[in-house]
């Protein structure tokens, strides 16, 4: 055993020394396994037995751990919640499964419908293509048919007459001259523009003897006429100023000098001899002078001298070089004045007996050979009896302290003009007694009385039905004067007292219109003379004057943004998006036909709605009757409509014109950021033709200013001076009839603008806009006030956001009295009030307010002039000044406002009963 190896020795040592611990470990492992088996098997059985024994001891109803009959285990609170959750989840799963199956079925059906729609779209495209072809063929056929029935005619080529024009054969007698026999229509084609050549007064012999004041006034009027030409070879008419002469030549000498005129052409055809007078007595030196085929225009005519329809009766030239002072003219109200009627005059007897032998050789001898009729004595007795009766306060004087020179058989004027005007200002009616000689058709004395009466608003009463008043072929004098035959002088008092106040006011307003338009200045006298001849030969008037727009170059390219306020249009369809370039309103639709058809009516309407001015086209009485004759400023007939397809309001522009656009005119002054924002808001506005920005600042726009690109032209116009009147200049850049005048800080939605445009098309003669104002009478201060409070009544619509016709811009800039424009420049205010006064004066209609909004200023804009404290005080002064100029208050109240229920207008509960809706 001692011979064992070391390895074996180590192994045996290990067994010997470690044998006992290894056994212990094995015993411990066995005991641990037994204990684990006991705990895992016998302990639950013992616990179950123990617990079961406790439940059985407590009774069935007190069991806690044992099974309970009838599913009583779920009655425990926490178990009940789990059960409910399980049931709910199960139910939802079932519902979701059903929904999933339903959606799968719906998807299947929709896929089938999509396939069917794709097939129908392809079929519809084919049908649409065929319809387009049919429509194209139909339009082509329609155009061919129209070309056959109504060929498009071009204007005739004007053939100029020969310089050595022999003229037509002379009439049998110079007294029998009429237009058809003595006027050469070949020199005045319809398209000629009515050129007029005026002889220089220094070029003929008697020119140096003409009254210098008359000569100067005539020359100034000629300079302002649009018809005057310097080329005599193309002239339609030739004007010769023949008087008033200080030293008239003999008839034979004057006749010889007339024939020596360079373009007289042996008979003087198309010549007009103009005899202007500033006095109550004028020399009729053309009497017994052979004027050939030349017409005569003067204030005094004998019956055997006057050629009806050829010669013209002129009004006297009272205001030769001075403008009438409107502030000195009395107001048109009150209706009744101090005197019912007045007359001051002295009868001029004949100087020679009617038994004079031999025919009269001169005008004076012809007049002196006819004694006055006995009607003058009856007139004197009747008027004195009315004065002595004291039924009404009248003033009649038949003797003068200082009688003015007058013709024989005529009633001479008394005293000086200033004294006569003071009496007329206190008179309701003024008598104009015709000359006693029945052969004296017109006299300067009667014309002077007529002129002075209309100037101060006194209604003329003409005693004598044989006299011819100025331009009686065109003016309906019965609307401004009372014509009474001399035998009815005994009934005159009754007739004047029977007139109502409304009739008196209407005649007074008409007389003021005739005086102001045709007779007040030398320019009006000349223009009226030319308009009379042009109308007689049926030549259309020249286009109205337009202001040339001097454009300011600007950079465009900034993309216009989208304003969130503009997108809030609801379901309203604002109109089609114009795919064509902007188009102007049609021009000259009825120029030629209207001149021939509606002449008489156009001359006799004032103030409404549009009346004739001598230097303007023959404008229609009503917009429904005809189109204005002018450069793109015409009216078309209103009413009836076109199409007849019964389109809904949202889908059609409305009105009678199928295609029409409007121009935005925006006045601005050194507010570039505000202006750019306003221009961006116009992006996408339907029916917008262009935007004209009136740059009212002498400082040009910034060089780096980038203007928005709104898809339409933006024309920036440079003005000569900073004036609010520039807003209403008739710019030639405006090619549409409709103008939307808008401030650069006004904030309007597209739907509001479109609705206002629709309303304006149905009331083209009125201002249609958004901010309403009214005027009121201040009893304490006896003056008019401007009021901007919200009210059911209004009389003005401010042009800071309003539509109006372009023709009103012409009237405002060139026809409206200059003192009004001067006051606008003085206060830098009131231009909108002036436009409302003008339109109401012309139309005798109030403006139309649309929508319920009263404030249109954009939030965050710089402060405007209207926020100044003196703004309203200046507007009060403007209203009272304008009333003095017009002679009455032309503004009219209205409670009418046009709204659309499509805009879902919200009104205060106390305002809903004030308005009418459409």
Automatic annotation (TrEMBL):
InterPro entries in the cross-refs: Exostosin, Exostosin_GT47, GT64_dom, Nucleotide-diphossugar_trans
Molecular function via GO: glucuronyl-galactosyl-proteoglycan 4-alpha-N-acetylglucosaminyltransferase activity; metal ion binding; protein-hormone receptor activity
Coiled coil: 79-148
Membrane topology: Single-pass type II membrane protein
Record Gene3D superfamilies: Spore Coat Polysaccharide Biosynthesis Protein SpsA, Chain A
Subcellular location: Endoplasmic reticulum membrane; Golgi apparatus
Catalytic activity field: 3-O-(beta-D-GlcA-(1->3)-beta-D-Gal-(1->3)-beta-D-Gal-(1->4)-beta-D-Xyl)-L-seryl-[protein] + UDP-N-acetyl-alpha-D-glucosamine = 3-O-(alpha-D-GlcNAc-(1->4)-beta-D-GlcA-(1->3)-beta-D-Gal-(1->3)-beta-D-Gal-(1->4)-beta-D-Xyl)-L-seryl-[protein] + UDP + H(+)
Pathway: Glycan metabolism; heparan sulfate biosynthesis
Family from the record: Belongs to the glycosyltransferase 47 family.
Function as written in the Swiss-Prot or TrEMBL entry: Receptor for REG3A, REG3B and REG3G, induces the activation of downstream signaling pathways such as PI3K-AKT or RAS-RAF-MEK-ERK signaling pathway. Required for the function of REG3A in regulating keratinocyte proliferation and differentiation. Required for the inhibition of skin inflammation mediated by REG3A through the activation of PI3K-AKT-STAT3 pathway. Required for the function of REG3A and REG3G in glucose tolerance in pancreas. Glycosyltransferase which regulates the biosynthesis of heparan sulfate (HS). Initiates HS synthesis by transferring the first N-acetyl-alpha-D-glucosamine (alpha-GlcNAc) residue (GlcNAcT-I activity) to the tetrasaccharide linker (GlcA-Gal-Gal-Xyl-)Ser core linker. May also transfer alpha-GlcNAc residues during HS elongation (GlcNAcT-II activity). Lacks glucuronyl transferase II (GlcAT-II) activity. Important for both skeletal development and hematopoiesis, through the formation of HS proteoglycans (HSPGs).
Protein name stated in the entry: Exostosin-like 3
């Amino acid at each position: 055993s001692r011979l064992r190896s070391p390895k074996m020795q180590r192994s045996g040592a290990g067994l010997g020394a470690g044998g006992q611990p290894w056994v212990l470990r094995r015993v411990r492992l066995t005991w641990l396994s037994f204990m684990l088996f006991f705990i895992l098997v016998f302990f639950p059985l013992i616990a179950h037995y123990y617990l079961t024994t406790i439940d059985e001891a407590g009774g069935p109803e007190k069991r806690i751990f044992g099974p309970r009959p009838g599913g009583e285990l779920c009655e425990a609170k926490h178990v009940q919640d789990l059960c409910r959750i399980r049931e709910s989840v199960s139910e939802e799963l079932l519902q979701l499964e059903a929904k999933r199956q339903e959606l799968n079925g719906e998807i299947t059906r929709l896929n089938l419908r999509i396939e069917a729609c794709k097939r129908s779209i392809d079929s519809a495209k084919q049908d649409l293509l065929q319809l387009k072809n049919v429509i194209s063929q139909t339009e082509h056929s329609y155009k061919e048919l129209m070309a056959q029935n109504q060929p498009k005619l071009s204007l005739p080529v004007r053939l100029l007459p020969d310089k050595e024009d022999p003229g037509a054969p002379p009439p049998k007698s110079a007294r029998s001259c009429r237009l058809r026999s003595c006027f050469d229509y070949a020199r005045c084609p319809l398209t000629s523009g009515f050129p007029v050549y005026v002889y220089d007064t220094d070029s003929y012999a008697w020119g140096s003897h003409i009254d210098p004041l008359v000569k100067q006034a005539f020359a100034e009027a000629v300079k302002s006429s649009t018809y005057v030409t310097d080329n005599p070879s193309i002239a339609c008419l030739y004007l010769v100023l023949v008087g008033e002469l200080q030293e008239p030549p003999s008839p034979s000498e004057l006749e010889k000098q007339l024939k020596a005129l360079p373009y007289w052409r042996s008979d003087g055809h198309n010549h007009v001899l103009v005899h202007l007078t500033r006095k109550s007595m004028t020399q009729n030196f053309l009497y017994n002078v052979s004027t050939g085929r030349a017409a005569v225009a003067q204030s005094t005519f004998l019956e055997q001298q006057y050629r009806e329809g050829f010669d013209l009766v002129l009004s006297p030239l009272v205001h030769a070089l001075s403008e009438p002072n409107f502030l000195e003219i009395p107001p048109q109200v009150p209706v009744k004045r101090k005197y019912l009627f007045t007359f001051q005059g002295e009868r001029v007897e004949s100087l020679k007996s009617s038994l004079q032998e031999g025919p009269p050789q001169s005008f004076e001898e012809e007049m002196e050979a006819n004694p006055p009729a006995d009607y003058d004595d009856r007139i004197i007795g009747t008027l004195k009896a009315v004065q002595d009766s004291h039924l009404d306060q009248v003033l009649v004087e038949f003797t003068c302290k200082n009688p003015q020179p007058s013709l024989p058989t005529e009633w001479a004027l008394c005293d000086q003009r200033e004294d006569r005007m003071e009496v007329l200002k206190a008179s309701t009616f003024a008598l104009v007694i015709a000359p006693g000689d029945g052969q004296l058709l017109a006299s300067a004395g009667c014309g002077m009385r007529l002129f002075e009466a209309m100037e101060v608003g006194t209604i003329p009463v003409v005693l004598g039905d044989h006299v011819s008043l100025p331009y009686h072929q065109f003016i309906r004098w019965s609307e401004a004067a009372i014509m009474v035959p001399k035998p009815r002088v005994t009934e005159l008092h009754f007739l004047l007292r029977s007139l109502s106040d409304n009739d008196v006011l209407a005649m007074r307003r008409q007389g003021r219109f005739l005086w102001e338009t045709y007779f007040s200045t030398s320019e009006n006298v000349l223009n009226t003379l030319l308009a009379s001849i042009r109308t007689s030969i049926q030549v259309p008037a020249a286009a109205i004057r337009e202001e040339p727009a001097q454009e300011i170059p600007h950079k465009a390219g900034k993309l216009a943004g989208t304003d969130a306020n503009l997108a809030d249009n609801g379901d309203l369809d604002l109109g089609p998006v114009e795919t064509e370039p902007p188009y102007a309103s049609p021009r000259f639709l009825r120029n030629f036909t209207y001149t021939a058809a509606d002449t008489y009516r156009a001359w006799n309407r004032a103030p409404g709605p549009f009346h004739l001015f001598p230097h303007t086209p023959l404008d229609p009485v009503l917009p429904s009757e005809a189109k204005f004759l002018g450069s793109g400023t015409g009216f078309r007939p209103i009413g009836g409509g076109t199409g007849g397809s019964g389109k809904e309001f949202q889908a059609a522009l409305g009105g009678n014109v199928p295609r029409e656009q409007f121009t935005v005119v925006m006045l601005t002054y050194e507010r570039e950021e505000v202006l750019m924002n306003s221009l961006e808001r116009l992006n996408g506005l339907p029916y917008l033709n262009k935007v004209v920005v009136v740059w009212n600042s002498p400082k040009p726009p910034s060089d780096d200013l980038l203007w928005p690109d709104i898809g339409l032209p933006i024309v920036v116009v440079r003005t000569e001076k900073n004036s609010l009147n520039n807003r209403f200049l008739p710019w030639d850049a405006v090619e549409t009839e409709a103008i939307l005048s808008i401030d650069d800080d006004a904030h309007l939605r597209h739907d509001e603008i479109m609705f206002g445009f629709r309303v304006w098309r149905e009331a083209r003669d009125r201002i249609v806009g958004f901010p309403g104002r009214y005027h009121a009478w201040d009893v304490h201060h006896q003056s008019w006030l401007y009021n901007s409070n919200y009210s059911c009544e209004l009389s003005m619509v401010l042009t800071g956001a309003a539509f109006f016709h372009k023709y009103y811009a012409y009237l405002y800039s060139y026809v409206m009295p200059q003192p009004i424009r001067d006051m606008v420049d003085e206060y830098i205010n009131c231009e909108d009030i002036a436009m409302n006064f003008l339109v109401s004066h012309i139309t005798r209609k109030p403006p139309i307010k649309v929508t319920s909004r009263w404030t249109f200023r954009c939030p965050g804009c710089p402060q405007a002039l209207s926020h100044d404290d003196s703004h309203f005080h200046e507007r009060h002064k403007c209203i009272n000044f304008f009333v003095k100029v017009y002679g009455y208050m032309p503004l009219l109240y209205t409670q009418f406002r046009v709204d659309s229920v499509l805009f879902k207008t919200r009104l205060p509960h106390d305002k809903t009963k004030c308005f009418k809706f459409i």
